[in-house]
Amino acid sequence: MKNSLSITLKKTIEYSVAFLRWLLLGIAVGLVCGLVGTAFSKSVEFVTELRGSNPWLILLLPIGGLVSVGIYKLCKVTDVGTNQVLKSVRGDSKVPTLLLPAVFLGSVITHLFGGSAGREGAALQLGGSLSALLSKTFRLDEKSQHILTMCGMGAVFSALFGTPLGACIFVIEVISVGQICSAAFFPCIISSVTAYSVANILGVAPERFYIENIPGLNIETMLKVLIIAIAGALVSMLFCSCLHYAEKIMRKYLKNDFLRIAVGGAVVVLLTILVGSDDYNGGGIHVINRIISENQVNYEAFLLKILFTAITVAAGYKGGEIIPTMFIGASMGATVALLIGMSPAFGAAVGIASLFCGVTNCPLGTIILCIELFGANGAIFFALAAITSFLLSGKASLYSEQLFLFSKLNEEKNEIT
Question: Under CATH, which number does the domain 219-404 receive?
Fold first, then answer.
């Protein structure tokens, strides 16, 4: 009896110490990442508005690209990106501290001159770099460093998008498909909520889209959602294939980093002139808002955004693919919705759910993120779209270092080579 009580007391103390330790570490990471995330968000917002009032800045995209490559080479982080952050969580590599200023400045340059990229890649990399620096400061062991890296990733993501719960689940889920680190839940939610609170206090408005007249739950609506989800899975595979193929081709024929980004930038400039619109420059949040609030849909928009984004990312411009993914999902979903007799705004939300999950393979994170973005009324539809796309998109992924530990078809464990 005494031995049992002793063990219980020991375990209680152990869990209490872990609780306090991760509470303090989570708050510390959230505070730092919230401040950096706020600075990054306001910088991107400022340069995007600047480009909007000075459309000629798009002509300087190739020059901006050269500056971006120069910064990365100066910081000695060439070819370091989100994939290395994912690997660092598994202990396969380290995130260099100088990635922080490089990805911050590189992403701001991309948005200033109109490259088709978002903020997610920068958020994950900023968070990974900051948490690596904090891990050294706190002298954490290797396993704790991995958890703190996830905390940093989720914290900056949360600060930028205003989705603390979705960010928390997403970064835990995205590392390895089929396996979740449950030990990271508590510190990640603490860091995400803290960063969100800091950003909110400092004036970063959370991304929110308001969908009117969400249909009732019936067989007809479910079938229409399934149609959009299937289309989303196909477009997910197309998008990922275009990204990886474009990068392979550009690296093969344009081996010099400076030449590759200058040529890629020039192509984006030419495409912008040919299209006659700046809708495909930058992330495209304004286009998503337009689709949802005004039901304005261009049938070809999702294909053009894939083209613009594939060239931008393959050329070496920094930023991320998640906001472009949402753009593609919204425009694709709204287009299909019009064809099958559904509200374009609701179709856009379902399309975002299917595209986001199709390219990230994070069904739980997608469902929660969509609830935070669109509200809970459409939760069952977002879940259906996300899970359907998750199954049908196979091993398509934005991140080549994302591990598929378990099959999507059964409980078999995949062989990792």
Answer: 1.10.3080.10
